[in-house]
Amino acid sequence: SKRKNPCEGKGNADFCEFLIELAEYERNVNRNIHKYNAYRKAASVLAAHHKRIESGDEAKKLNGIGEKIARKIDEYLLTGKLKKLENIHHDASAQAINLLTRVSGIGPVKAAELYRCGIATIEDLNKNQDKLNHHQLIGLKYFEDFEKKIPRSEIKDIENKIKTTAKVLDPEYTVTICGSYRRGKSESGDIDALITHPALCGYKGNKKNEEKLLQNVVDALNNGLVTEVISVGETKFMGVCRLLQDLPARRLDIRLIPTDQYYCAMLYFTGSDVFNKTMRAHALEKGFTLNEYSLRPVGVTGVPGEPVPISSEEEIFDYMDYPYKAPQDRNM
Ligand code: DCP
Ligand code: MN
Ligand code: MG
Asked: Which residues are designated catalytic?
């Protein structure tokens, strides 16, 4: 989901906050995903560091913090602010584009396009709904609800509801809620559900049954939990759910995963995104290529081989010679 802050009041929270703000500016306004990743990585390294950083040079010793970020830490320690952020705060176009990207379905490119049409506020969006697609219209309709974090207890209830609904249809369904919830966070931005069924295997799947394995669950959830469909295909549902009348509407994604890809998908969708990058880099060092579908050995020619059979998340770590990390230890 869109709003992210790994800082949560730890010793270096103020550094994290400005790094996250710089990251979002680079992604949303400059469309520079490399700088976005660099700032996010630095923020998560500082969030996990259990000692207050007292200088840029001290920060630079940490993996993921280079010269430029070190100097920003010095500037912040010396003046209590950052010139670069002050400038961004006074830049009307940057502020507008940042705001527009907070609407679910509006990315940096669409936000810039809307801004060029003179659209800068939520009110402007409401007056220009003809410029928005179905997803963006739902994002606009629930703008305030989707900005609200989802308490863990509410996701627990939603998890139970999805599991019960799936099991009634067919006891062979397996449901796992991944994302920040699985990492043990006390609140989440959205709900990332994975489901699988033994009838669906990447290699020997029965095409006839596959087609309805996701649709049947979504249809059953339409009776009470799911309130809007953003999009639904054979393997991916994106939509909106509401547990109880007086609770906010929540973003819910459900992905149908073939059984032989389930643990790679579970690892990927549990995240965090920064952790996934670290894990993929480590896989490459060990001669593997890892993604949301599979773990494959990379031969000397650089061509990935057949996927390694995987029957647990632990096995993925084992293959890569990487000490197992429980989901709650994957927040960086
Ligand atoms: N993911 C990733 N890279 C991306 C997007 C997502 O690796 N660019 C993976 C890791 C995320 C997971 O998918 O943890 C779910 O994506 P979310 O955006 O829902 O992120 P979280 O669930 O971690 O956080 P939030 O509480 O904001 O939803
Ligand atoms: Mn998500
Ligand atoms: Mg999520």
From this structure: 72
Here the contacts of 27-35 (C-beta below 8 Å, separation 24 or greater) are 27/108, 28/97, 28/98, 28/101, 28/108, 28/111, 29/88, 29/93, 29/94, 29/97, 29/98, 29/108, 31/108, 31/109
Give pLDDT tens digits for 280-331. Answer: 999 999 999 999 999 999 988 889 999 999 999 999 999 999 999 999 999 8
Q: Which residues contact 190 (CB under 8 A, 6 or more apart)?
A: 1, 146, 150, 179, 250, 251, 252, 253
Tell me, what's the ipTM? 0.99
How far, in Å, from the CA of 1 to the mean position of ligand 3?
5
Beta strand extents in 183-247 (DSSP E only): 187-188, 191-196, 226-232, 236-241
Q: Is the CB of 272 under 6 A from ligand 1?
A: yes
